Amino acid sequence: MGAPHDVVIIGAGFGGIGMAITLRRAGVRDVLVLERGDALGGTWRDNTYPGAACDIPSHLYSFSFAPKTDWSRRFPGQREILDYLNDCAREHGVLPGIRFGTEVSGARFDADAAVWRVETSAGEVAARVLISACGQLNRPVLPEIDGRDSFAGEAFHTARWDHGVDLRGKRVAVVGTGASAIQVIPAVAGRVERLDVYQRSAPYVIEKADRGYRLWEKDALSGFRGLHTLSRAKTYAFYEARAVGFLGESRLMKLMERRFERRLAEQVPDPELRRRLVPDYPMGCKRILISDDYYPALNRPNVDLVTDPIERITPTGIVARDGVERPVDVIVYATGFAASDFLAPMRIVGRDGRELSEEWRGGADAHLGITVNGFPNLFLLYGPYTNLGHNSIIYMLESQFRYVLGCVRALREKDLAWIEVRPDVQADFSRVMQERLRGTVWASGCASWYMTGDGRIVNNWPGFTFAYRWATRRPDPRHFTVRRAA
Ligand SMILES: Cc1cc2nc3c(=O)[nH]c(=O)nc-3n(C[C@H](O)[C@H](O)[C@H](O)COP(=O)(O)OP(=O)(O)OC[C@H]3O[C@@H](n4cnc5c(N)ncnc54)[C@H](O)[C@@H]3O)c2cc1C
Fold first, then answer.
1. What b-and-e string marks burial along 113-151, b requiring 16 or more CB atoms within 10 Å of the CB?
2. 427: helix, coil or strand?
3. Which of 99, 126, 199, 317 has the fewest CB atoms nearer than 10 Å to its CB?
4. For the chain, which residues score pLDDT lower than 50?
5. Per-residue pLDDT tens for 25-62?
6. How far is the CA of 139 from the centre of ligand 1 (A)?
7. 46 CA distance to ligand 1 middle (Å)
8. Atom of ligand 1 nearest to the CA of 54
């Protein structure tokens, strides 16, 4: 193990890359990024399934410090977003600082040396500051279904799409109707022989209004920088306004529900199918999805929506509660991610031997979603309380970059060995979060990936994103205890 790095970042998705760029631009040069994959991109490297695209317009789902004016369309596909992130990393000179194929299994804070000892698949590295940029949505979950492993055909998760399997003329089952499923289903429905869609709970799918940008629009955006900023601000304001509905203003959601019902009636003529597509929970409780071609795909004669719960999987098919075995050649699991596990399965041991998994037994918790008492000089990106139902995660990440940079600067400028958030500050923040979350639509009675197993919401930010930016504008010295360098 060599000398400690100033900063080690775990993960090279939007969070890790953006943080590395922010540090570099601020003159912090000794930054090492550890990435378990063999390429950067995180979400956008892993999710290559047909139809994969963002659901926040990319003029907003991109870094403010690296504007791209020639996006091909409002909601570009996975490849274009991945290319953008690769371009950012290359142009800002952070590629050489990434060590690919290096998985972090744990980290231990060595208080005597004031460094984090980070265990990786390639040995130990030391860091004065450790930043976790592991994301919330990259550990795919497969459902516990009897006989799952007995299936003799091809089976894979949407985030591990097997491009070697040709779906043409095959009988395919998609398990799940969440954000990935509603993109995959229209993308494959036209080329498979049969498509069975297994729905546990109907999503609200509203209009996407996607379209390609015209040449003159791209020219105008690249010719006039102000125009790009203005267009981004307009998109931000449009999406931010939706927060009102999530934060407890049920009249807005009711209005949106009625619009949803009208659109469903227009798009799905069969009343029986339509009945099964109406969600049984208030709009917004689970993620609201956007698509212009999901319902039309379900109308196709070769597509069947199965709403009976799956009982078991056999070597040749799927048996739902109706007792019918539907034979399939390929099963696609669109069953989401272990979202509330955060840093798991890494073993993080802080000051005085405190284990993060123990501290978080009742649910993950961090002041501003970024710092945890007992874990000095450890910072989390896209941590607890920072997911959104209504706007761009990149905006939240940029707030965190600035805050973490403030902490790194404080360590350097004040010659500190470490800083650590005070327990009372973290507890107060957590109490306020839980109080506010109780009044949101996410707590209105559905089960969602925003919750831990025992129903505690720990993923989402219960407020406006500009309020989060304000709260994270700079680290408040009164919130921390510090240890001076020897
Ligand atoms: C299909 C899909 C679509 C999405 N669409 C949108 C959208 O439209 N708008 C939006 O705002 N958000 C969207 N999201 C959320 C998205 O995850 C975030 O916007 C953002 O990409 C998160 O970036 P990240 O860097 O924090 O995490 P990730 O992109 O998940 O990257 C984390 C990285 O950390 C690495 N890593 C994890 N653990 C370790 C370890 N132990 N050692 C080494 N490396 C490790 C992973 O390999 C990965 O590369 C979407 C998510 C998914 C899955």
1. ebbbbbbbeeeebbbbbbbbbbbbbbbbbbeebeebeeb
2. helix
3. 99
4. none
5. 999 999 999 999 999 999 999 999 999 999 999 999 99
6. 10
7. 9
8. 8
* Interhelix angle 393-413/14-25, nearest 10 degrees: 40
Residue ranges of the domains in the chain? 5-139+338-484, 151-210+223-333
Which one, of 381, 376, 360, lies nearest residue 109 by Cα? 376
- CB of 104 within 6 A of ligand 1: the answer is yes
CA-angle at 288, arms to 181 and 283, nearest 5°: 130
Collapse the DSSP code of 418 into the 3-class scheme (helix H, G, I; strand E, B; otherwise coil) and give the result.
strand
Q: Whose CA is closest to 213, among 196, 231, 197?
A: 231
Residue with tokens 């299936």: 151
The answer, yes or no, to whether any atom of ligand 1 lies below 6 A from the CB of 329, is: no
Provide the phi-psi class of 101: left if phi over 0, else alpha when psi is between -120 and 50, else beta. left
Domain boundaries 5-139+338-484, corresponding CATH code = 3.50.50.60
CA atoms 347, 46, 365, 178: torsion sign: negative
| Distance separating alpha carbons of residues 381 and 432, to the nearest angstrom | 20
Among 21, 43, 399, which residue has the most ligand 1 atoms within 8 Å of its CB, making it the best to mutate? 43
Give 448-467 as a DSSP string: -TTB-TTS-B-SB--S-HHH
442/282 Cα distance (integer angstroms): 9
Check the CA dihedral 16-18-19-20 and report its sign: positive
Q: What are 408-464's pLDDT values in tens digits? A: 999 999 999 999 999 999 999 999 999 999 999 898 888 888 888 778 899 999 999
Q: What is the distance between the alpha carbons of residues 430 and 449, in angstroms, rounded to a whole number? A: 19
CB of residue 178 inside a 6 A radius of ligand 1: no
Can you give the pLDDT at residue 245?
82
Q: What is the model's pLDDT at position 1?
A: 65
What's the CA gap between 336 and 333, in Å, rounded? 8
Tell me, using a 6 A CB cutoff, whether residue 139 lines ligand 1: no
CATH superfamily, with its number, for domain 151-210+223-333: FAD/NAD(P)-binding domain (3.50.50.60)
Question: pLDDT value at position 455?
Answer: 83
What was the pLDDT predicted at 250? 78
Say if CB 366 and CB 344 are below 8 A apart.
Answer: no
Query: How far lies 454's CA from each of 284, 361, 420, in Å?
Result: 20, 11, 29
